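Annex B.
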Amino acid sequence: MARRSGGIKRSSWVTFRRRLFLVRQLLRSPASAEELITRVQTELGVNGYPANAAAALKHDLDSLKGEYDCRIVYRRDQGKYVIVDLGELALLDLPPQSLEALALLDASYPAGSANPTHASIRALIDQVIQMLPNRAQTHLHARRSATRQKAPSGRIDPHVLAAVRQAIEEKRELTFRYWGLSNGEAPRRHRVAPYGIFFRNNGCTYLDATLLEVQPPGAEQLFAPVDYRLDRIVPGTAQVLPTPLPPERLRAPALTLRYWLHPEVVQRGEGWSFFPNAHVEYSDDGSALVTATVSNLSVARDVLLRYGDRCRVIEPTELIDLIRETVDAMASLYGNPVAVR
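Transcriptional regulator-like protein: predicted structure tokens.
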């Protein structure tokens, strides 16, 4: 009895490898027949296409459509093949917790951002979704319609973005009018030293800057780092100033921070980890006295107010005044009951 050579088995393996390579190439970007053939020959060598490569390529694409229900279309206007749907050839499956994380990213980075890095993340998310099974894609599309309504809807004015980028690249001061977070507050003029653009997973793009001046003045601390949401800069107001930035980043002077913490907060091990180089003195009653250094009073206020009446600031006086202003504003807000309709 003649021994089986195993040639058919090897041929099937080579064919599957070649077709999987085609799918990976089309997931990267649309490609012409000539580009696909060249890439296959370069990658697979002797396991690539035979002499009649064009016919073999068409057979591979037809097999992917027939065997796996892949949707691969030829765009005549581009002269390229495009993979629209992987069908049953799902290359990636994710557990429920990973799908939830992907849904959060999908909602946090909507399409249409003016930030190129943001747009690249959006493209990556789309590619990952494309590799999922149809059931997982359906789940994400359903989540998108429910969560996208909660995502920030503000758009970045292209002229604002251009001015911010110019100021950063040329290392010059920047001025603009900025909408605050308080309802009814008119936008104020800010003069800043800009240092970079970044984004957060809430879908918003920010300017990392040092505040130099604000008009009319408010509770902001001058020379403190501030994260400005670019979509809150009033369109038409961003202007690059001729004043160059100093070689070293401007920083607010460091202030000594001292505050008392209630025993309940101390027992939870909270109240000082946010501040670097914090020194904690424990008292017999379980309370603690924390000493640290801060340069941004607004951030220190936001951190310490979360402990309510379980924390009392001792110094600096500037922070005490800032907390008093905040508490007075809250008392005014809640002091007048609003009728519930």
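Residues 1-5, 146-153 have pLDDT under 50 and may be disordered. DSSP finds ten helices and eleven strands in the chain. Further annotation is deferred to the next reporting cycle.
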